[in-house]
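Hello,

I think I submitted the alpha-D-glucopyranose job twice by accident. Can you confirm which output corresponds to this input? Input:
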Amino acid sequence: MPKNLYLSLLLCLAGLTSLPAQKKLGNETPEQKQQRMAWWTHDRFGMFIHWGLYALPARHEWVRNYERITNEDYEKYFNLFNPDLFDPKAWAKKAKAAGMQYAVLTSKHHEGFTLFDSKYTDYKATNSPAKRDLIKEYVEAFRAEGIKVGFYYSLIDWHHPDYTIDRVHPQRPLKDSDTAYERLNKGRDMAKYREYLYNQVTEILTRYGKIDILWLDFSFPGKYGKGRDDWGSVKLLEQIRKLQPGIIVDNRLDLNDYEDGVDFETPEQVSPKELEKYKGKTWETCQTFSGSWGYHRDENTWKTHRQLLDLLITSVANGGNLLLNVGPTARGEFDARANKALDSLGYWMHANSKSIYGCTYAPDGFKAPEGTRLTYNAAAKRLYLHLFDYPAGTLTLSGYAGKIKYAQFLHDNSELQLKTGNAGDVLLTLPAKPAYDIPVVELVVD
Ligand code: GLC
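Support: Only one job matched these inputs. Its output is below.
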């Protein structure tokens, strides 16, 4: 063992110093990182968009895997992909009206089809009946609405001939065994795929101007899986940071042991309750309206307006972001269910977005009363009380005495009278419930 490592280990065991720093790829300081991520931490709410050939079968973006569909059998979707109603300006307007401040679109999903005009493949939108670079139009439309622009890019690729068959590949063996995989992977060369992946990520980060966020998906190391060595994650992330120094990158490259290998964690489809354990970390939860990311015609377990609000508010109340997904149809539109959900969020956000943007969890001295959740804007010195269960008449704010100056509804700035209660308590007087599923009280904090 090198002498100074031995020394630091001894000091550490003696409790005199902390463990040697984690591995690092670059030399960004924590302050610089905080600055790089400032817009994202402020904005809190984004739109995820999963769009690809899987919109045609319309039964989950993993349909190729679930039904073990071969390239040949999947080809019909490529030949029929003709999104005649695609209007990214309409998408961007919807996102904006719902209060979403950034967007992430699948430039390529696991199926391997690229929405952009890559020079490294023929399996792309420009060669399908769509005949255009859909990524370019998306970028332009969202930027024009003042929405920050991001890409999702799948590390996994079920179409590329050099991508080796693994345990989530549609052509995986019926029974796992080394010989079965060896036989299936004869002639496939991951080194070539690695280069392809590197080249395509380079393309999307050099052709469309400043890209604000990149979502790479996903690693599954272990037996018959894939991880950092398969993707060439270190080299890839270095290239990403070189091409787009301001970009924010997710945590799915399998680089968790690098201090700067991850910008944010991505709890996927977790419940509001589970979000509580992420408090204090840097994170964004991604969620679907229903169970599927891609357009799924027959999926009927759509979240209610209240469940969506709960996810948004509970994310911010625990210091995180919400990336809410839409799966446009094969004709290129958001369907009626998605529009309805977005419109209802827009109605609430129009009146209440101040409790979301620039907010995080409340300081320690404030406890959320039963049936409420708190968010806090430190710069504005405002505390936001979200009334999930609307109280009749009065709400007791225990321990708030001397800490708040004024109270009003957020949606109309109408005063809510405060009275002194028992020791340390403040009583908030409330009228009949206003026309918001979850009304918000704004408290001016001393
Ligand atoms: C999962 C799925 C994928 C989806 C993603 C979003 O990793 O494989 O279909 O794109 O989650 O977080």
